[in-house]
Fold these 3 entries.
Entry 1:
Amino acid sequence: MADNRLYSIAALAKILDVPESTLHYWKNRFDDVLPSFGTGRGKRYRAEAVAIFRDIGAMLAQGLSAGDVRSELARRYPVNVGSGEAKGPAAPQTMTAGGGTGGGVDAQTMLAMASAIGAEIARTLAEQLGRGQSGGPAALPEATMTAFTSELAQARAENAVLGDKVRVLEAELVRLRKDRRELESFLLGKIKGLGEGRDNG
């Protein structure tokens, strides 16, 4: 008889003695070859996933690239490729709070309940946001807008004044550099003249 149990990542981590973070990484890389049921945090994996996760770990440990691992998994487990849902009989699965099977709620029922709760939360949020916006994006009060506009105009004026000062300073710097070069030439000429005078004297 087939093993119809469903496992969470936490349960698989205990079975395989592998950190959950590692399984999450492998799950994200090779999700399309893992027999799973559900989505998001409620995603559960069929018993066959234990062997597939083991093979993934072994192949990565041998130094195979992710592409090579994927090809090998497709060869070994062709029935799982191309589907995010679990393959196999469509018999309803029951899950307990711990993620195992037993006398808990039917998995399809749990998914339907979660979907309904999500839809209700989305509807409530949409109503609240629509009520707060009253037909359009919230605007700032007129006094605040006037103050901001005034501050912006003042900042632009100050920026223009500072720009003018910077241009004056740049021109002054160019002039000082030119004066320095002229002074250096003058002093070098004087020093050279004094040296020649001593030689002649």
Note: The radius of gyration is 38 Å.
Entry 2:
Amino acid sequence: MQSFFEHPHASTPLSVSAYIAIEFAEPIAIRRHRSPDYPRTMSLDLSYCGFTLPGGALGLIDRYRLPRVSPPHALLDWSRRISEAEYLELIGPPDLDALAAKHRGLRFQLDWRKEPGHENHYGQVENVFALIEEFRYGNRALSYTLTVSDMG
């Protein structure tokens, strides 16, 4: 497996992002409404959501043994489906207090929203709320796909 640092076209660690895509059994809610026409997959940018990534996004390539999935001359992508246990180790349970305790960046974003004038600033945190809601609703996750992408 060729790592990011060994690849001749790799850019910088700052241009690397990590995403988790969760495929659910039922369509996900959009603005609290459900429809059979809605997508079943929810994707979260882990860094923007404030999740702590051991070794940064690049550290996930080796930690989760992500194979390179991009063509030789394209931007670099490493990806694979991960198990529920791996998901829980990386992200944590679908509980806001537990997630905030585990991920300092998420806790910072939640605390920032408590400050006057920031109460309605959701940004990426809104995606975390939506993810928790899906699990509370009882929407069962069918698969989890972890992707690390070099955006060039």
Note: The mean pLDDT is 84.
Entry 3:
Amino acid sequence: MDTSVIDALYGEGGSASRPARCRAVLHQGMADRRWTGSPHAVLTLPSRDTYVRACRGFATQVLRRWGVSEAARDSAVLVIDELAVNAVQHGHADTTVLLARAGDMLLISVTDSGAVVPHSLEGVNSDEHGRGMGIVEFLTEWSEVRHTAAGRRVRVGLRIVGQ
């Protein structure tokens, strides 16, 4: 297991700010046939607002390591931020971020452990809420949302260009 990315986030060997349930893994190859042999990275953290920043930092470190251009990296980090915020708001235990690269396509998958929570935006200030998925859909080639008994998984495909 390559822990260099999580070490970059929390310091080698961890630190007091590193959550006990934090897991970050960089791998070569995936179970999903579309991404077999592709480099990928996974981060799992407790579903807490304070860890959204760690999701952004994780993505930035991984994408920089993979040679993704700054512009594509910025778009990917914005997408991850929006998806992680949603996962934290609606999840209960953990949020998992998966990144996989296959050629000029980046798969971003964010999973939360929350049950399906119907929510209405009535009475919510639209300047503060409700735009996240619109931003995600604008920046990505495709998106899908799957609800299961264990939670929700949002997957998107973002076209990227290497440096």
Note: The two ends are 26 Å apart (CA to CA).
